[in-house]
Design goal:
The chain is of the alpha+beta class. 41% of the residues lie in helices and 13% in strands.
Length: 506
C-alpha cells in the first residue's frame, strides 16, 4: 500500500499533488517491469518510450527509487527492485560485488559507481530494518550485506588502501571526464554518510558478532573519511572542492575544476541533500562540524553565482550548471530538486516557496514541446523561460526520467517533515511553502523499534507558512514524537510520549 500525500491551500499546491501522483503512477506503469514475460521483474528503466537510456537501469536512479518506495510504503515493489539490482551486479576483479553506472536487462556486470552504490546501500538498510523478521527478503538482504563479497565490504577494502574512493563520470571528474577516475567530494561524502548509517544500523539491528564487528569497522572508517575530507576537500572560503587528483591527493587541475560542466555544478548539493537520509531533517542542529558549514557554504556560494542568481531572482529557477548552457538549464533532480531540498533543510521558506513554484509551473508549461501522456509528468531538461531553444535541442531522457521523479517525491516528504531516521524518536518538522495551508498523508510508514507502523497525519499552516497544528493517528503504538510548530524563527516544540497511537499539537 502506497502512502498518499495531498497539499492544499493554493492552485500550485494542488498541481504539485497531482504531479507527484501521476508521475509516480507513470513510473510504475511504464518504467517498472512487473510481468516476467516482459523482462526481469523489478528492473526499472531510466527513461521510457525509446528515449536515451530507456533500455537501461542506472544504479543511482534505482537506489533513489527504492528509497522513495520504502518511505512511501510500497514494500513489495521495493523488494522486487532490490532483488533486480542484486541480480544485475557481477563480481569485480577483486572478488566483490560492485555496482556499475548502468546495466541492461539480464546482463549483470560490475563497475565503480560509488554514488549509486551508496544510495542503494542506504536504501537496503532502510528496507531491512522495516521488514518483519520472518520475511524472506529481509534474510536475503542481511545475508547479502554481511557476505565477504558485499559492496559494503568492497568500499571498506578500498578505504584500507587509499584515503578516498575514486569514481568516474558525472560524479567523478565531471560530464566531460567519463573514464578518468577522480576523488570526487560528492561520492566520498555519500560514502562517509552511508558507512555511518550502516554502522549504526548493524549495531542496533542484530546481535550477530559478525554484524557488530562490521558495524564498528564502518563507523571507524566513516570517521576517518570525514576527517580526511575536511582536511583536504575544502577551499579557503569554507566550501567543498569538487574533486581531487587521485595521483597527488590534491585538488584537481584548474582545467577540471573550472570546466563549464563542473564549476558551479549544482550536483555538489548532493552531500547536503543526502544527509537527510542519514542524519535527519535538521542539519543545522548538528554539532560535529563536518558537512555544516561546508555544505551550507557551498549551497550559498552556488546560489549567488552570476547566472544562477539572476535566473533565481527572476523566475525561482536554480540552474543545474552556472556556465554550461549559459545557466539556462536545470532539472527536477540535481538542479532544482536538490536545491529545493537544501532550501527546505536550511529552513528558508522565502527561497523554497519560489523554487517550488518554478518547478510546478515549468512542469505544466515547458519552454519546448515535451513528449508525454500527461502534462503533470516531471521530465529531465527544464529551460529558463526567456531562453531561446538551442539549435539541435533534444528532450534527452524526457518525461519520467527516473531520478527526475524520485527527487521531487523526496521534496514532498521533506515538506511533510516526518523524519524517522532517529533510533528512538520520530521528529515531525513540517515546512510548507508560503500560501500552502494544509498537507495530509494517509498510510505513511514510520519506523519503530520493532519495524514500522503506518500513520495518517494532517498539518495546518497559516498564510505566512507558520505551522499551526499537527494531528494524526497510527495503526500501532508509536515511539516518542517531537513535533515542531511555528517556523525555525519561532519554533514551538511538542513532545508526545512513546506508546501512543494518537497525537496532536496545536
Amino acid at each position: 500500500m502506497r502512502a498518499k500525500l495531498q497539499f492544499q491551500g493554493s492552485e500550485a499546491a494542488e498541481h504539485f499533488s497531482r504531479q507527484l501522483e501521476e508521475s509516480f503512477l507513470g513510473i510504475v506503469r511504464k518504467n517498472l517491469i512487473a510481468d516476467p514475460a516482459q523482462g526481469p521483474v523489478g528492473f526499472v528503466a531510466a527513461s521510457v518510450d525509446g528515449r536515451y537510456w530507456s533500455d537501461t537501469m542506472w544504479s543511482r536512479d534505482q537506489g533513489t527509487f527504492m528509497r522513495e518506495l520504502i518511505h512511501y510504503g510500497e514494500f513489495e515493489l521495493a523488494k522486487a527492485a532490490w532483488q533486480a539490482s542484486v541480480d544485475h551486479v557481477a563480481l569485480n576483479r577483486e572478488g566483490y560485488y560492485s555496482f556499475p553506472m548502468y546495466v541492461y536487462p539480464n546482463q549483470p556486470r560490475s563497475g565503480e559507481e560509488m554514488d549509486g552504490t551508496t544510495v542503494w546501500l542506504v536504501s537496503s538498510f532502510l528496507l531491512w530494518e522495516r521488514l518483519p523478521a520472518e520475511d524472506a527478503v529481509r534474510y536475503r538482504i542481511e545475508k547479502y550485506l554481511l557476505a565477504d563479497t558485499s559492496p559494503l565490504r568492497y568500499i571498506l577494502f578500498i578505504l584500507e588502501k587509499q584515503p578516498f574512493v575514486s569514481g568516474c563520470g558525472e560524479f567523478g571528474g565531471g560530464i566531460r571526464m567519463p573514464t578518468q577516475p577522480f576523488y570526487n567530494v560528492v561520492q566520498n561524502g555519500m560514502v562517509a554518510m552511508m558507512l555511518e548509517f550502516a554502522g549504526t544500523r548493524l549495531k542496533s539491528g542484530t546481535r550477530q558478532a559478525e554484524a557488530l564487528e562490521l558495524g564498528n569497522r564502518c563507523l571507524r572508517t566513516a570517521a576517518g573519511l570525514k576527517e580526511s575530507m575536511l582536511n583536504r576537500m575544502v577551499f579557503e572560503d569554507g566550501s567543498w572542492i569538487w574533486c581531487l587528483d587521485p595521483d597527488t591527493g590534491r585538488q584537481a587541475a584548474d582545467e577540471i575544476l573550472n570546466d563549464e560542466g563542473n564549476k558551479g555544478f549544482a550536483g555538489i548539493n548532493g552531500i547536503l541533500t543526502h544527509s537527510s537520509d542519514v542524519y535527519g531533517f535538521m542539519p543545522l542542529t548538528r554539532g560535529d562540524g563536518w558537512f555544516v558549514p561546508a555544505s551550507v557554504q557551498t549551497f550559498y556560494k552556488l546560489l549567488t553565482t552570476s547566472h544562477r542568481m539572476e535566473r533565481f531572482a527572476k523566475y525561482g529557477m536554480f540552474s543545474q550548471f552556472d556556465l554550461e548552457w549559459e545557466g539556462n538549464l536545470t532539472s527536477a533532480s540535481y538542479g532544482q530538486g536538490y536545491a529545493i531540498q537544501c532550501m527546505l533543510l536550511l529552513d528558508r521558506p522565502e527561497l523554497y516557496t519560489k523554487a517550488v513554484q518554478y518547478l510546478i509551473d515549468a512542469t505544466l508549461e515547458p519552454v519546448y514541446p515535451v513528449t508525454r501522456d500527461s502534462r503533470f509528468w516531471f521530465y529531465e531538461r527544464y529551460l529558463c523561460p526567456d531562453s531561446e531553444i538551442p539549435d539541435g535541442w533534444e528532450e534527452g531522457c524526457g518525461a519520467l526520467n527516473l531520478v527526475n521523479v524520485t527527487e521531487p517525491l523526496k521534496c514532498a516528504r521533506l515538506m511533510l517533515g516526518v523524519d524517522d531516521t532517529g533510533m528512538e524518536t520520530v521528529s515531525i518538522v513540517p515546512r510548507l511553502p508560503v500560501g500552502w495551508t494544509f498537507a495530509e498523508a494517509t498510510g505513511l510508514p514510520v519506523r519503530t523499534p520493532s519495524g514500522y507502523t503506518r500513520i495518517d497525519i494532517r498539518i495546518s499552516s497559516d498564510s505566512e507558512g507558520s505551522v499551526t497544528s499537527v494531528t494524526g493517528e497510527a495503526a500501532d503504538a508509536l515511539p516518542e514524537l517531537r513535533i515542531r510548530l511555528g517556523t525555525a524563527v519561532n519554533p514551538s516544540w511538542h513532545v508526545v510520549e512513546p506508546g501512543m497511537n494518537r497525537f496532536a499539537a496545536n
